[in-house]
TrEMBL record:
Organism: Flavisolibacter ginsenosidimutans
Composition bias, Polar residues: 560-576
Keyword Repeat appears in the UniProt entry: yes
Protein's UniProt name: non-specific serine/threonine protein kinase
SUPFAM superfamilies for this protein: P-loop containing nucleoside triphosphate hydrolases (SSF52540)
Residues covered by the KaiC domain: 16-255, 256-488
Keywords, alphabetical: Coiled coil, Hydrolase, Kinase, Phosphoprotein, Repeat, Transferase
Region forming the signal peptide: none
Length: 576
């Protein structure tokens, strides 16, 4: 995090600062070097002092509109221009445009005779003319030892140094003065660091045959500043310094969820996947598919039209792209579209700090939403477990601040040391996926389970991890009579159960047919009985109707007979 200089009381103003344009340095210094004051850049040969000074001048002229003067006491202007051309600095054009002026002052100590009247008036005249000719705001003197190489009188030396630094302040230019490191002192004379307002020490160390460049701000009058040693990188783009990230653990967090690229794994993670900006560790023994999981995650990120940065410490990008085609993942299409960028290097190429600087620089340039490091355990070859853990803490802090999701892969070995390594790494991350070998029935299969996933509900079940031509997938837990089954045992048990299901279905179908047949027979019998019943009922009804008709006829005949008889009796009475 950048260090900020602010007023601590009413009426107190922050120290004016001039941005260097060097990536990372302005964050450490809280804005740059002190404006209008001299800054001493000291260090041993080959640590990057001249390049630091040249970049300070070039960045000022090209990015901040501040012309600069470079006074060289060792290299000629042509040599300096050639040396920095590989970094993309065109000093010839800048001189032609009047933005930079380079002046080589040749001093041979064998031609200098020390007298009491020795002074720097000649240099002041020459430097003053160069400053006024282009209206320079920045000045570089490289290196100061050559200016005083013929002097041994400390009194004269101290007086002239003070005069030089005072003259630069009076001119109002922001000056960078380089100096070589002495025995037990920051510079050979041991005086420059006391009269400088800001002192920056560059160091170039070699440990275990691996070199690391480090920068430290020894003092900075009138301003707070970072005091740690900061790794810096010199490459084709110049100098990049990696600031120490915040140790306050106050980075913003996101509740947004992103897919892992494996639907079944997302389901195990509450159905939504990982938190954006979180850190994920995928660990397992060799051949368990860690790189495949990382490639699927990268592929899914690119499918969302989000940039992904892939750092490989074991395989080349071409090898990874080829291997992933065998499981149906085409990473090259994302590389061609500019969504995926892959960088591969052996860990022994640089020290841990330099790897961290390189990763930091690539992230700042490419601005990805997801980062993959595969595998981080290879870094142990160039540093101890505690050093690797320290590096990863700083990387995770930086990525969390930038809201970048990071996935690490780690190789596990069946040793006590490895278990400690895994724990040291896994304690840093938000989610930990463990892929293990499951050996049974004479074959090896893969099992995946979630060791932890902070802030979300997640499954505690083991899933069989399958890699085939169509990609990677997780098979649901299958419980057989003897426990969890995987591979051919699972397939055999599933086939057996499927066969039994088919036989049961066939038996049920035969029973259904027999039942239907019996139903039809019974229904036929019922229909026959129903017809027989209706026939009997008709017969009974017929007899009943005939009996009623007979009774009606008999009753009618009886009434008719009675009537006839009555009629006869009445007729007989009249005749009498």
């Amino acid at each position: 995090m950048p260090l900020k200089t602010k007023a601590t009381s009413v009426g107190r103003k922050p120290l004016p600062k001039t941005p260097t344009g060097i990536r990372g340095l302005d964050e450490i210094t809280g804005g740059g070097l002190p404006t209008g004051r001299p800054t001493l850049i000291c260090g041993a040969a080959g640590c990057g002092k001249t390049l630091f000074a040249a970049e300070f001048i070039v960045r000022g002229a090209t990015e901040h509109g501040e012309p600069g003067v470079f006074i060289a006491f060792e290299e000629k202007a042509e040599e300096l221009a050639i040396n920095v051309a590989s970094l993309g600095f065109d000093l010839a054009k800048l001189q032609k445009d009047g933005l930079v002026r380079i002046d080589h002052v040749y001093i041979d100590k064998s031609e200098i005779e020390e007298t009491g009247e020795y002074d720097l008036d000649g240099l002041f005249i020459r430097l003053g003319y160069a400053i006024d000719s282009i209206g320079a705001k920045r000045v570089v003197l490289d290196t100061i030892e050559n200016l005083f190489s013929g002097l041994s009188n400390q009194a004269i030396l101290r007086a002239e140094l003070r005069r030089l630094f005072g003259w630069l302040k009076d001119k109002g230019v922001t000056a960078v003065i380089t100096g070589e490191k002495g025995e037990g002192t920051l510079t050979r004379q041991g005086l420059e660091e006391y009269v400088s307002d800001c002192v920056i020490l560059l160091d170039h160390r070699v440990a275990n045959q691996i070199s690391t460049r480090l920068l430290r701000i020894v003092k900075y009058r009138g301003s707070v500043h970072g005091t740690n040693e900061y790794p810096f990188l010199i490459d084709e783009d110049g100098i990049s310094v990696l600031p120490i990230t915040s140790l306050m653990l106050n980075a913003n967090v996101s509740s947004q969820r992103i897919s892992s690229g494996i639907p079944a794994l997302d389901k195990m993670l509450g159905g939504k996947g990982f938190f954006r900006g979180s850190s994920i560790l995928v660990s397992g023994t060799a051949g368990t598919g860690k790189t495949s999981i990382a490639a699927v995650f990268a592929n899914e990120s690119c499918r969302r039209k989000e940039r992904c940065l892939y750092f490989a410490f074991e395989e080349s990008p071409q090898q990874i792209v080829r291997n992933m085609l065998s499981i149906g993942i085409d990473l090259k299409q994302h590389i061609d579209k500019g969504l995926l960028e892959m960088h591969a290097a052996r860990p022994t190429l640089n020290g841990l700090e330099m790897h961290l600087v390189a990763i930091h620089k690539h992230i700042k340039r490419f601005k990805p939403r997801a980062v993959i490091l595969d595998p981080i355990t290879n870094l142990v070859t160039i540093g101890s477990i505690s050093e690797v853990k320290s590096m990863l803490i700083r990387l995770i802090d930086f990525l969390q601040t930038e809201q970048i999701t990071v996935m690490f892969t780690a190789l596990s070995l069946n040793t006590v040391v490895n278990e400690q390594t895994d724990e040291g790494v896994s304690s840093l991350v938000d989610a930990w996926l463990l892929v293990r070998d499951l050996e049974s029935n004479g074959e090896r299969n893969r099992g995946l389970y979630i060791m932890k996933s902070r802030g979300m509900k997640h499954s505690n079940q083991v899933r069989e991890f399958v890699i085939n031509d169509s990609g990677v997938s997780l098979v649901d837990v299958y419980l057989g009579p003897d426990g969890v089954l995987t591979g051919s045992a699972r397939e055999a048990q599933q086939l057996s159960e499927a066969t039994g299901e088919v036989l049961r279905s066939h038996a049920i179908n035969r029973k259904d047919i027999e039942i239907q047949r019996k139903r039809k027979v019974l229904e036929a019998k019922i229909a026959s009985l129903q017809e027989e019943f209706e026939s009997v009922q008709d017969e009974l009804n017929k007899s009943y109707i005939e009996e009623n008709i007979r009774k009606e006829i008999q009753e009618k005949n009886r009434r008719q007979l009675i009537q006839n008889r009555h009629s006869k009796n009445t007729g007989n009475g009249k005749s009498k």
